[in-house]
Design a protein that fits this description.
With 455 residues, the protein is an alpha/beta fold. The chain has helices spanning 15-24, 39-43, 46-63, 80-103, 179-191, 210-222, 274-277, 313-328, 357-362, 378-382, 411-414, 416-423, 428-432, 444-450; strands at 6-9, 29-33, 108-112, 116-119, 122-125, 128-131, 134-137, 141-143, 171-175, 194-198, 226-228, 235-239, 242-246, 254-256, 258-261, 265-267, 300-302, 341-344, 350-354, 367-373, 389-395, 401-407, 453-454.
Length: 455
């Protein structure tokens, strides 16, 4: 029965780095992964999808070449085999980098297999029992497939399987109007497919304020992507030409060649034998953790997507940083200190941090709001990409920035000015009097803050 100082189950964006830190501290560590090192980000998420987004943007800008005085003979063609291969190369380079890193690391044992708990301090994998006083779960999540009429009768795509397509769909129906679905919708429209987005709720990107959601819908519609919200009767049926997708609300069915189901994520916690260890989960299957990522069982921790405290690569990596700081460096880091921030990688992208306007109003604070269209940004005009707007929300009494959104060219980068200020707890006048570089997207931030008004 091999024993270790720690066992890490899952090799996403928390597990491998925590394992490496523990090994560097002289610990003997087993890292168990049932599929591939790197988790969702490397293998089916950020890296391959954003590589595909880059290819789609290249196609989009090529079609716009004449707007910039660039004349291309003939039309713009898409070679989906090359597009897919490029994404696969990016993934494999990252995955192989991790493999090579761990191969030269004394004290690290990498095991490929499906780990299950025997009890609170032991797991089985490949027929062998491993023990350790500390066990870290970094098992991630998978696409959710809800029960919809006819779903079992069709061949549908998920965010994992669609990245392997090497042929362009004739008509892609995207079920779900949230972040993953919207990125693929615009991407495949730019590759040349007809695309329809179907969302059960009243708006796209439902966690956003209505002005942001409406602007996102306008961006997609401007590229001839059909958007249907309040779809109360989604169902599927095979047809001679593909798949009939019903929407409800008296709308005619859509004849699609492919269906992408992008309706959320489910934690990979249902086949770990958590009950044998006594580890608690919530009603959705997420592992319950405290502010330091400890479960209800001493010595067992949960990091990354499976704990429900963040669904992004950067939050998963921050879970590693918190665990390492507390367990190895004697610090006192907490998940609740983390300011939520993320991006939606349509084009132009949305960068978001902190509270929405709706959340800020619900908090009972006296708030100030300022908005500015991207058409006021010099870089946006120079690049002829003026869609979207900036928005910032501040506390009128403390002058602290509560939240911000930049939906526009390079919004995913410019938002970091707000992220840094909020983490530094700097009152907004500090940024108001900053002298930015011209011409940039960020240069409008002081002007935006100067226009804050109580509402």
């Amino acid at each position: 029965m091999p024993s270790f100082d720690a066992i890490v189950i899952g090799a996403g964006q928390s597990g491998p780095f925590l394992a490496a830190r523990m090994v560097a501290n002289g610990m003997k560590v087993a890292l168990i992964e049932r599929k591939f090192l790197g988790g969702t980000c490397v293998n089916a998420g950020c890296m391959p999808t954003k590589t595909l987004v880059a290819s789609a943007r290249a196609a989009h800008m090529a079609r716009r070449g004449a707007d910039f005085g660039v004349v291309l003979p003939g039309g713009v063609g898409i070679d989906m085999t090359v597009v897919r291969k490029r994404a696969e190369t990016v993934t494999m380079n990252a995955r192989n980098g991790l493999i090579n890193w761990f191969a030269g690391m004394d004290g690290m044992t990498v095991i490929y297999g499906h780990a299950r708990f025997q009890d609170a301090h032991s797991v089985t994998v490949n027929g062998e029992i491993l023990t350790a006083p500390k066990i870290f779960l970094n098992v991630g999540a998978r696409p959710t497939i809800p029960a919809m009429p006819g779903i079992g009768s069709i061949d549908y795509l998920t965010s994992t399987s669609i990245i392997h397509l090497d042929r362009l769909p004739r008509h892609l129906a995207v079920i779900g109007g949230s972040y993953i679905g919207l990125e693929f919708a615009q991407m495949y429209r730019r590759f040349g497919a007809e695309v329809t987005v179907i969302e059960r709720g009243p708006k796209l990107a439902s966690r956003e304020d209505s002005d942001i959601s409406d602007a996102i819908a306008d961006i997609l519609r401007s590229e001839d992507i059909a958007v249907h919200t309040d779809a109360d009767g989604i169902g599927f049926a095979k047809t001679a030409n593909g798949i009939s997708v019903s929407i409800g609300n008296g709308q005619p069915a859509i004849e699609a060649s492919h269906v992408l189901v992008a309706t959320g994520r489910t934690p990979n916690t249902d086949d770990l034998g958590l009950d044998k260890a006594g580890v608690a989960t919530d009603r959705r299957g997420y592992i319950t953790v405290d502010d330091k990522l400890a479960t209800n069982v001493e010595g067992i921790f949960a990091l990354g997507d499976c704990n429900g405290r963040g669904a992004f690569t950067h939050t998963s990596y921050n879970d590693f940083e918190i665990a390492a700081a507390n367990l190895l460096d004697g610090e006192d880091r907490k998940v609740s200190d983390r300011i939520p921030a993320y991006a939606l990688y349509i084009d132009p992208p949305l960068g978001r941090v902190g509270m929405t306007e709706k959340e800020a109003r619900a908090s009972g604070r006296t708030i100030m709001i300022s908005t500015r269209p991207m058409s006021r940004v010099g870089r946006a005009n120079e690049r002829a990409e003026t869609k979207g707007f900036m928005k910032v929300i501040a506390d009128a009494e403390t002058q602290q920035i509560l939240g911000a959104a930049i939906l526009g060219i390079e919004g995913d980068e410019a938002i970091h000015g707000f992220i840094d200020a909020m983490n530094a707890k700097a009152p907004y006048p500090v940024l108001k009097w900053a002298v930015p570089i011209h011409p940039t997207v960020s240069e409008l931030i002081p002007t935006l803050l100067g226009d804050l008004k109580a509402v």
